[in-house]
Amino acid sequence: MKQKKIDIVISLGLLVIIWQIVSVVLEKNTVVFPAPMQVVDAFQELFWDGLKGSTSSVTLPGHIGISLIRFAIGYLTAAVSGIFLGLILGSFPKAFAIVNPAIQVIRPIAPVAFMPFIVLWFGIGDVPAVVIIFIAGFFPILLSTVSAVEHLNPIYYKVARNFGISKAKTIFGIAFPAIFTQIANALRLALGTSWIFLVSGEMVGAQSGLGFLIMDSKNCIRYDALLATMITIGVIGFLLDALLRLLEREIGHRFGFVN
Predict the structure, then answer these.
(1) pLDDT tens digits for 168-220?
(2) Which residue has the higher pLDDT, 24 or 77?
(3) Is position 39 within any domain?
(4) Mean pLDDT of the region 3-13
(5) Would you say 160 and 241 are in contact if contact means Cβ atoms under 8 Å apart?
(6) What pLDDT, on a 0 to 100 scale, did the predictor assign at position 146?
(7) Nearest-5° angle of CA 198, CA 199, CA 200?
(8) Which of 45, 62, 74, 204: disulfide with 130, CB 3.0–4.6 Å?
(9) Helix residue ranges, H only, the chain
């Protein structure tokens, strides 16, 4: 663990050094490519006062809180529905064979491509961003869960039949714990995808959130604030992934899903 922390510090330190060197080389273009200390100053401004010249008075912590609420709603909804439907469809191959072609047609479409229809149907505000997050997370979780169920060792089903266990208990009481590791990997993949598209969802129609702050900084020609917001998004994404890892490990050990 200590070595991992050292590696993180070294990696980030090298990134900052390279960033500083490039900013020195492009000294006359600091507006377009701000130096690290300019971004630090912009971060402090955003944190305490909000973006100067912005149409919104919300500070950076406020934008973060709003984005996290939207993300939690969209991602958790995608996780629950994706796992539930994945377990059902994976346990009934004939049903999955019918719906799979439709899924494979819809799945490659970028979530932001749905944005015009989402805004038309739901208006502007929180809902479009939440729907984009849901779409981005739902399909990876669904398809990974279906695949894990399909490749589950048949011995589990034989034992369940021998003991007269119902189909529902077999799916949720036996299959789900057996494929927990694969589901956890899918949740981590979907978390990264959903967090990326949160920003895209907030860039259109939203009046708050980190995606809105990205566009607001661009419109105010404040590239130091834009970079500060980008770094904030990256750090939060890193922390969310680490939190999900810890949660996965805790659930796995507590309920005996993993050794």
Answers:
(1) 999 988 899 889 999 999 999 999 999 999 888 888 768 899 999 999 999 99
(2) 77
(3) no
(4) 82
(5) no
(6) 96
(7) 90
(8) 74
(9) 2-25, 36-48, 60-91, 93-106, 115-122, 126-150, 155-162, 167-169, 176-178, 180-202, 210-219, 223-255
Residues 6 and 106 in one domain: no
Residue 5 has pLDDT above 90, yes or no: no
Which of 35, 31, 55, 57 is closest to 45 using CA atoms?
A: 57
pLDDT at 50 over 60: yes
Tally of domains in the chain:
2
Question: Is 182 among the domain residues?
Answer: yes
The range of the structural domain enclosing residue 10 comes to: 1-33
Please check whether residue 6 lies inside any domain of the structure: yes
Q: Are residues 128 and 218 in the same domain?
A: yes
Q: How far is CA 241 from the centre of its chain?
A: 9
Reply yes or no on whether the pLDDT at 125 is more than 90: no
Q: Is the pLDDT of residue 259 over 80?
A: no
**CATH of residue 220:** 1.10.3720.10
Binned at pLDDT 50, 70 and 90, residue 31 comes out as low
Considering the domain architecture, whether residues 6 and 93 belong to the same structural domain is answered as no
Q: What is the pTM of this model?
A: 0.90
Q: List the structure tokens of 174.
A: 């036996």
Contact present, 113 and 204 (Cβ < 8 Å): no
Who contacts 63 (Cβ-Cβ below 8 Å, separation ≥6)?
Answer: 208, 209, 210, 212, 213
Token pair for 84: 């539930």
DSSP code at position 65? H
Same domain, 233 and 117: yes
Does any domain span residue 207? yes
